[in-house]
Write a structure and sequence with these properties.
26% of the residues lie in helices and 28% in strands. The chain is built from 25 helices and 53 strands. The strands form 14 sheets. Strands 13, 14, 15, 16, 19, 20 and 21 form a seven-stranded mixed beta sheet that branches. Strand 8 and strand 9 (118-120) form a beta hairpin. It is flat, with a radius of gyration of 34 Å. The termini are far apart.
């Protein structure tokens, strides 16, 4: 079957027996009656016959969910279980057949199939073709069959040849097909997935094949309905379609969303690729050599299922017609070529390329390495090489911001890729000092930004910072908002208990063009990804505070790691059930709020039942003061939006009506000015539930969530840990110059994990700081100028000047340095040599002074700037609620394997809390132990409490 219409016509043309009579249905038409963005509705009409005589007509409709284009599906994920793989071997160790997307050859069962309907004898066809004879007309389907282009391309890869005729009746082609079907190739057993498999993906084709496999089930359910009710009905096919979408399309619907940790995670999620084994329906490895250049070799699943999930590289691009990938030509010009061209051309390996200088070199073995049809070869000359590998073809969005990937241990790279997409933006996050060129590219490519609909000039931004007013070239006014119900929301609560917040990235007076970002999520700053927080770091221990992976931070450093959140308050005031005592508690936009400040307060009046009032000799109305304040760990709050809605049916004579009207006018004053609408009002929310209220007040307060003990952070080389101590700045170590160390990182833990870039980042930032000082003083020697030429080798010589570098590469007290993910230039020896040439001896190690004793620490310690990410694992979100354990205000904890909600604390988090000296952070409130599971809870908790109290 090729279409749904053909399938329905075939499967619903039935004959059933009813009381010795034959009931028959003949489908007369299947028509697409309605189509919108989400579904297609088909109408099926059929005639019913009884013992061959026309009885009546029957009709039903069914829906097919609709996906937005083949291209988007390819981008989201590829599920090869939904379509027949191009070449699929069957059997155990012995290959007994293969499917070539419409052609099936099985020598053992002596069959050749074309499509799913006609079967021919293998031995007869083989005899004709191998003897050079033309197949007779009875085998016309085989004789005229031509292999599709993706099948031909895959065969080229499997057989490592360019010579394949698509006509099956060609003797050489037939032999090649038989070789594959019998396993007589270099590839034995299951064959890897290729890019050509991705090209074949089509969800409608997958649905047809699913329906074909379900055809008997559909008929079995239709027979009794035809016999009993003498009609045809939708539920059998509708049920099959639902099974297909629920079972498979949930994987496909991994669409980009603002519910991930950051835009990096969102883009990663959209590009994530998953393969399912077509027989077991389980995830299968996708580290196929045929996907080289399409899948990031670093980014993979965290945990036991390594290599079961990958992300597409940044260089990959899908259209409805083809897959393409970026390469360099031999002059380092960037090109985009088809995947067919890429696979069938010699492409020089990254290990032979210096991307910073745009030059080639021999590898460590003294040869050039190149790939051709997913096989690696070596050569002594570049004469046969057609393209150079593009760095983006080795990187997903998660790994593209990682300098020196090739210098770290591969497991640490894998973890760093995950941590990158788990980072949340903080109050001091900024673009990285040591950066890759892809952070700006991610900003350009992200689909999360809200963009200008046409050319114009920004003339105003509203107080709530959620709408921008643009005057177009022809004088019209356009309003661009990041807060439109059903389309985009300023505050996006993530699946990890944090918020992504849209912020305007334009200024009043700025000219914008169509597509210019107007709002971007707060993970971006200055046109690039900005998640890193630079902290002056020392690799040491500090008075026993840290345990294994524990970090000690100064108070000033912790303040830099605060994360923006929002508190949304809805106050609904019902007639005669509230009182507002003080009009000063009615906040307006811009009001600053700290922890104990009252945001809004009113008296809520409760009615007590008459009988209860008499028994207790009390009034029937009881007052309750309702007060809204910031959450426990909030700082730096600010009211960013107030919406006062008045019910049109509210009593205008009530004592509060005019006060609330004045409050509404006060809140609307700036909005009316902004929208050039003097009568603009907030529409009262519709709905029966809201009709009983006089006034509804919606308040939004932005604040920062403090970094707390047991919250997680990591540096950029995946040294993940938990915060175990926050010390006053004067108790932290300091340099001889008086610079306070902001972070003490356990050196042994870092060293055991081969996080090479941790050390290099410290040294390079130290070098960049010193070079900036020398540039500003205009005191560079020739040797120091040569250091700049090495660090900025990507620039032409005429740009390596004092003015240009200070004008384009300064970030605070540092010069920004681009370091390639596959850098092969900056060795430890070279960086230490550079440090010495700018007056920094001993590889950057320094004598520090203990902040408590005032004494020098004798052993020189490496000190430099490391950049950290705050991860979305925040402590107050870990425990949530649990029926076995209650939590105090200090910290929350989920204990034990069998917890209902919340996340179990690991060893490091427990050690961190114990180290903090808290004695009452977990309290056992179980009255009756009950079953064994509860006993385990109680036992684990009791042991923990004993440790605390001791």
């Amino acid at each position: 079957m090729r279409t749904i219409e053909e399938f329905v016509t075939a499967v619903y043309s039935l004959k059933a027996k009813a009381k010795k009579r034959e009931i028959e249905s003949k489908v007369t038409s299947v028509v697409l009656k309605h189509e919108d963005k989400t579904r297609q509705t088909y109408e099926v009409t059929g005639d019913i016959y009884e013992d061959g005589q026309y009885l009546k007509s029957s009709r039903f409709t069914f829906d097919v969910p609709k996906m937005e284009g083949v291209t988007e599906i390819k981008k989201m994920t590829i599920n090869i279980a939904l379509v027949r793989p191009v070449i699929k071997t069957y059997g155990g160790k012995q290959t007994v057949g293969a499917s070539f997307s419409g052609l099936y050859i099985n020598t053992k069962s002596n069959e050749v199939k074309v499509g799913n309907e006609h079967t021919f004898p293998y031995d007869v066809i083989n005899q004709y073709i191998m003897d050079g004879q033309s197949l007779p007309d009875e085998y016309k389907e085989v004789r005229d069959y031509e292999l599709s282009k993706p099948v031909v391309e895959k065969m080229k890869l499997i057989l490592d040849t360019d010579d394949i005729d698509p006509k099956v009746s060609n003797k050489k082609t037939w032999q090649q097909l038989v070789d594959i079907a019998t396993g007589n190739t270099d590839f034995k057993g299951e064959l890897p997935v290729t890019p050509q498999d991705l090209e074949l993906f089509d969800y409608r084709k997958g649905l047809i094949q699913h329906l074909e496999s379900d055809a008997n089930k559909i008929k079995e359910k239709s027979y009794p309905m035809l016999a009993i009710h003498k009609g045809i009905y939708a539920f059998p096919i509708q049920g099959s379609i639902k099974r297909f979408f629920l079972g498979n399309m949930t994987t496909l619907k991994m669409v980009q969303t603002t519910l991930d940790s950051n835009p990096l995670s969102m883009q990663s999620q959209k590009n994530k690729i998953v393969f399912l084994d077509s027989r077991t329906m389980e995830k299968m490895p996708v580290n196929s050599p045929f996907l080289d250049g399409l899948l990031d070799p670093v980014r993979t699943a965290e945990g036991a299922e390594v290599n079961l999930k990958n992300e597409l590289s940044l260089a990959s691009k899908f259209t409805d017609k083809e897959i393409s990938i970026l390469v360099y030509d031999k002059n380092f010009n960037e090109l985009r070529v088809s995947i067919d061209e890429y696979q069938n051309s010699p492409v020089l390996s990254f290990e032979n390329i210096d991307y910073k200088r745009k030059t080639t070199k021999l590898n460590a073995n003294g040869v050039y390495k190149y790939s051709l049809r997913s096989r690696y070869h070596t050569t002594k000359s570049l004469d046969g090489i057609k393209y150079y590998r593009h760095p983006a073809s080795l990187l997903s969005v998660s790994t593209s911001i990682m300098p020196m990937i090739n210098r770290n241990d591969s497991i640490r790279d894998l973890l760093a890729a995950h941590f990158n997409s788990q980072a949340i933006p903080t109050s001091a996050s900024q673009p990285s000092i040591i950066y890759t060129s892809f952070s700006k590219k991610l900003y350009e490519d992200t689909q999360t930004s809200v963009r200008a609909p046409e050319d114009g000039e920004v003339i105003a931004i509203n107080d709530s910072k959620d709408t921008v007013k643009i005057k177009t070239k022809d004088g019209r006014i356009q309003y661009v908002s990041c807060n439109e119900p059903g389309r985009v929301s300023k505050y996006n609560q993530t699946t990890n208990h944090t918020y992504n917040v849209y912020e305007p990235v334009v200024e009043v007076g700025q000219k914008v063009r169509t597509g210019t970002p107007v709002f971007a999520l707060n993970s971006f700053k200055n046109g690039e990804l900005a998640l890193a927080v630079p902290l002056i770091t020392a690799y040491s221990t500090l008075r026993g505070y840290e345990t294994d992976d524990g970090f000690v931070l100064s108070e000033s450093a912790v303040a830099k790691l605060n994360h923006k959140e929002v508190m949304k308050i809805d106050i609904k005031l019902e007639p005669e059930k509230y009182r507002i005592l003080d009009e000063s508690v009615l906040p307006t936009i811009g009001k600053e709020v700290e922890k104990d400040d009252i945001i809004f307060s009113y008296i809520k009046v409760h009615e007590v039942h008459n009988v209860i009032a008499k028994i207790f000799d009390m009034n029937r109305k009881v007052d309750e003061e309702v007060t809204y304040k910031l959450p426990e760990y909030a700082v730096n709050g600010k009211v960013v939006d107030v919406r006062v809605s008045i019910n049109p049916k509210a009593d205008s004579e009530s004592i509060y009506y005019q006060k609330m009207k004045d409050y509404q006018d006060k809140c609307l004053a700036e909005k009316r000015k902004f929208y050039d609408n003097p009568v603009y009002v907030e529409e009262f929310p519709r709905g029966r539930d809201n009709a009983i209220y006089d006034f509804i007040i919606h308040i939004e307060v932005e604040y920062y969530d403090r970094m707390k003990l047991t919250d997680k952070l990591t540096n950029r080389a995946s040294s993940k840990g938990v915060l175990v101590a926050i010390l006053p700045d004067d108790q932290m170590p300091r340099t001889l110059k008086g610079t306070v160390i902001e972070c003490v990182m356990p050196a042994l833990s870092m060293a055991s994990r081969k996080n090479y870039f941790s050390v290099m980042e410290c040294k390079l930032t130290k070098l960049s700081h010193r070079l900036k000082e020398l540039l500003e003083q205009n005191k560079l020697t020739n040797d120091q100028w040569n250091i700049l030429k090495t660090l900025y080798a990507e620039l032409p010589d005429d740009k390596i000047t004092r003015e240009y570098i200070l004008g384009h590469f300064v970030l605070g007290d540092y010069l920004r340095i681009q370091v390639d993910p596959f850098d092969t230039t900056l060795t430890p020896e070279l960086v230490d040599e550079m440090l010495a040439k700018v007056g920094i001896p001993n590889g950057g190690k320094e004598i520090l002074i203990d902040g408590v004793t005032g004494r020098k620490i004798r052993t020189p310690i490496l000190v430099g700037m490391n950049e950290f990410f705050r991860l979305h694992f925040v402590s107050q979100a870990k425990g949530a609620s649990n029926p076995i354990i209650t939590y105090t205000d200090k910290v929350v904890m989920g204990v034990g394997k069998h917890r209902y909600e919340g996340q179990k604390y690991g060893k490091q988090e427990v050690e961190a809390m114990l180290a903090s000296g808290a004695e009452d952070f977990a309290v056992d409130v179980t009255e009756d132990v009950g079953d064994r599971k509860n006993a385990q809870f109680r036992s684990a908790l009791t042991n923990l409490l004993m440790r605390i109290k001791n």
